[in-house]
Amino acid sequence: MATASDAPTRLRVGRLLKAHGLKGALKLELFTDDPDRRFVPGASFSLQVPRESPWHGKSLELTELRYYNGSPVAFFEGVADRTAAESLVRAILWVDVDDDEPQEEDAWFDHQLVGLAVVRDGQGVGRVARVDHFPAQDLLVVATATGEVLVPFVKAIVPSVDIAAGTVTVTPPAGLFEELPDDDGAGPSAPAPTDD
To answer: Is the pTM for the entire model greater than 0.85?
Structure first.
């Protein structure tokens, strides 16, 4: 009987941005520091697409990765023209990896992050409840005493993840973890009326 631990770990490695040319190519945004290992001919990717997409539940096999003006462009088996390519725009690419596979720098699996203590200015503010993946960026969902806080998982706001110590350090903008006090006025002061 299979257990949850038998399930492969999935790693998000890219997003398809837009069709390129007429032969089914797609511009690619890389979410991996090691594209030479992830994007080789024959590599297979699970797709994260809306349920109504004709690609839902399917995978793609890479046939070639090229660079045009420094931007990666991918070609996939069965994507032969621009129309097919356009139906894949905004799809997120995932790969299955072994837990003992060498880790990329600043890359973590969801299960490594969930449960970590979230620390701000040396004080605990909550724990990572889950990681939500969106096309623009990932969000850490932090469970706090007052509810869930959505923290953009970007270096400027989450400068440090220490799996060994069990902590995620955050430097959020004011108001993300607490309500900001209202000023006396709702906006800039209006000029005082004058006697004319």
So the answer is: no
